[in-house]
Request: fold
Amino acid sequence: MGIIILVVVLAVLALMGIGIYNSLVSKRNNVKNAFATIDVMLKKRFDLIPNLVETVKQFTQHETEIFDKVAASHGAAYSSLSNSQKAEIDANMQQAQRSFFAIAEQFPELKSSENYRQLQGALNETEEQLSAARRGYNAAVTEYNTSIQSFPKNIFAGAMGFAEESLLQIGEAEKANVNVGDLFKK
Amino acid sequence: MSDINSLFSSQSPAVEQVLSEIEATRRASLFPCFAWATVVSVASCLFTFLFTGIDTISVITVVAIICPVVFWCFISYYRDKLSAIYKADVLPNLVKAIGLDMGSEQGFQYETNCDVPVSNFRDCCLFPVHSDDFTEGEDLITGKIDKTDFKFCEASYQYDTEDSDGDKTQHTVFEGLYFDADFNKYFQGVTLLCTVPLGWVPKNFSKVELENADFCKQFTVYSTDQVEARYILSTALQERLVNMVKTLKNASGEKKFSISFFNSRMLLLVSSGTNHFEASLFKQLKIERVRQDFQLIYTMADVINELNLNTRIWTKQ
Reply:
């Protein structure tokens, strides 16, 4: 009788373990998937670089240092870049976008051109999609972290090697970038 | 844009003139309505007795069935005549004035009859789709504010079922206010917002948890794409939607709101059992009632401003 009870308890624990493991794997994959989505959006923004640089250089040869930097980074294929290179391009792109909108303020003919309007729309759209992807990533990480911290999953999570993931922080520069978009409301 | 009260006040002299005409017609209709209904009821009952014979059961049955039906038909007929005056002489002018005030070049347009595309109810994913489904609509208001076009009406979505004897039963899936507007961003999937949870999760949808606590208290969100849902529901839009629902609750008195974002458009449905924009045969149509209708139309059209749908800083122009 004692053996049967022990077997039943072990079977229940094993089933619980399998269930929890599968649920944690699914949540961890959601986090990976959400992170990959950010990468897709960064690539989409990366593809806007030639158009951005070309448009600016048509109107000014000054204050183009940051555009030269992003243009140089576009020389390599996006898939071949390391994470740190991607992060650097991301930071440069944010700076380039702010400069782009500032330059447009100085050159009314740039601001009124069809090319500028299209580019402005594409930049804003990509920026908002990127922001949505980051929010999606943070939501997935929060769900995953809550899951591995709550009882009884925390017991299994520790033993199965599920570690906490960190949330993405929105930098001050990025917050300012969102406000710039608002300046161009029509 | 003017204040809603001052805008209504500017229209009220003309409205009151039509209201006195409607009231005169209403008073003049009461006697003929009941006289004709009585005559037709008596004649119908007598005619029926010729076939059934006069005994207590048949008298009670015939009177209980025929009289209410005949009276209901006459009352509806005379009430529709009053509503027709209201819809021809009051609503179009109010709707146009609201449109002009909101910056629409030609004002908004009003039509009594309306075809609501059944495909919109099927594609919005807010309801299970049935094979014998159809829509009905009335009191259509259309217009365009800046770059955003919209369509607002009273609508119902229904379907028929047939039992083994071939008897049809009609089921109402939705009844209330229908507001369809262009959205300012392009998107591919479908995102649903419901103030009352659906009770089922549509296929390929998952629940979306967003950051704004007030918004999450107000809405349950489902979407085919978590990232796209967040792209549509920016933090600013979440706040605006919370405010919009508060305003609409005050204007309509309704509590159940559902929103579907699909085909790069936004469909807002307000469940309601009230038949708006109608006159009554038994109650005088007062200026206060007209003010309520005016406020409802204004508030619905103002959803475009409230949600900032004319902000076109993305690729959709």
Remarks:
- The beta strands of chain B are 109-113, 133-145, 148-162, 168-182, 191-194, 206-208, 220-223, 257-262, 265-271.
- Chain B has a mean pLDDT of 90.
- Chain B is about 45% helix and 25% strand.
- Residues 76 and 281 of chain B are 9 Å apart (CA to CA).
